[in-house]
Amino acid sequence: MARAAFAAAFLGACVYGARAVTPEAAAAIYPSQTAILIVASLLSACALALACMAFFQAQRQAAEFTRFSRSIEIALSRLSAQVEAGNRAVEDIETWVGEELSRLSGSNSAPSEPADTMQNIVQHPSAKKSQGRKAPAPAGGGQAENALAEAVSSGALELSLQPIISIARNAAVGFDTFAHLEIDGAAEDIYRLSSTASRVDRAAFERLLVTRAAETARRRLGPRSGSMPLHCPISEALLDDETACEAVSSLISSHPALSKSIVLSLGSALLREPTPVQRERLSQLLQTGISFAAEGWDGPAGSISELRDLGVVFLKLDANRLLDREKSRRKQVSGRDLAVAGSESGLEIIATGIMTDEDAVNILDLGVDLMIGDRFSEPKRLRSTEAAA
């Protein structure tokens, strides 16, 4: 402010001095010298004014840059704190998962039957890494398919469970259900069969998987089964098979509590565009009170709300899709927009395939709290005596 007053006073003095030159004084000086003196004074005053303006503008820009730098520092420090908190939460979850699964064994409660004295959930240190949701690769000329076909035929199907974790609640809120095989000492955990698995009756496999999951929910989870439902994968194979679909519907109808303990997980495309027969079977299943989990989404974000009208409670999205690492077409909806649209539609978003701490932290940043993946826990096998009971 003082600099501005000084500049204004100096400029005024220059103008006043120029105007104070009287004709007599001017006559005493050579005419050309007088004109040069006046022009030089005016140019000097203009230059001084411009210099003052540039100086003040530079000061304002410097102040704005300082404020911008400070805001960036604050934002980075907040982001660093969030990342550290997310990392601590992930570390806590990893420790907790083992305790949660151990608690499911019922070892801390009095056994209701002699068979219940056996530990329910065990991990095989010698087993190879789980294959997750991928269909089993036929081992030794279809050895895996043959073993699974035999298990389905005999009804002696073993299960594995993989926990769905809530980071905010620091607790398991459900489990994905797998069929478990032991082949030459190696573990195969099968989520859903590929349509190319010709040796196995897919409808019978899915029906048996739901049946075994229902038995596990009733006998082992007890009153907690409603808050930790078992997600059972089904496909068009079950919906196209009248006998298998009727069996699942009758099972849920005869035990109403199972409608909260079992969630049927299937592709969102199958839910949105079923055949007339499949639509009728889906309606039949919904009448039992059971809920659906939709897997994946390839439509516009604004259409996600349609899933609620189809009985969907959960929307499972792969971590790579949520983090925009894979896109099936140009101008595809971003993962963040999908997460927001799903939440606004009242759906529980479950991020699947979480493999690293970085994935978990980035998914948390999208506002997604429910996650599942080998980063937290691989599928854990149920003992055969319990699965077949």
From TrEMBL:
Keywords: Membrane, Signal, Transmembrane, Transmembrane helix. The keyword Membrane applies. Residues 1-20 form the signal peptide. It holds the Pfam family EAL. Residues 141-389 form the EAL domain. Gene3D superfamilies: EAL domain. The keyword Lyase does not apply. Residues 124-143 are annotated as: Disordered. InterPro entries: EAL_dom, EAL_sf. The chain crosses the membrane at residues 36-56. SMART domains: EAL. This is EAL domain-containing protein. It comes from Aquibium oceanicum. The lineage of its organism: Bacteria, Pseudomonadati, Pseudomonadota, Alphaproteobacteria, Hyphomicrobiales.
